[in-house]
Amino acid sequence: MAFRVFTVIGRDLLRDTAAYSVGIAVAGAAFAALATAQGLPWWITWAMSIFVYAGTAQFAALGVAAAGGGGLAIVATGLVLNLRHIPYGLAVGHLYWDRWWTRILGTQNLLDTTTAFALAEGDDRRRAEIAYWTTGAGNAVAWVIGNLAGMFIGGWIAEPETLGLDAALPAIILALVLPSLKDRGTLLAAVTGAAIALATSPFLPAGIPVLLALLGLVFVWPRKGREREEAPR
Amino acid sequence: MTMLAAIIALAAGTFLIRLAGPVLRNRFTMSERTETILKAGATVVLLALTVTSTLIVEGEFAGWALPAGVLVGGVLAWKRLPLAVVVVAAAATTALLRLAGIA
Question: Is residue A11 assigned to a domain?
Answer without folding.
Answer: yes
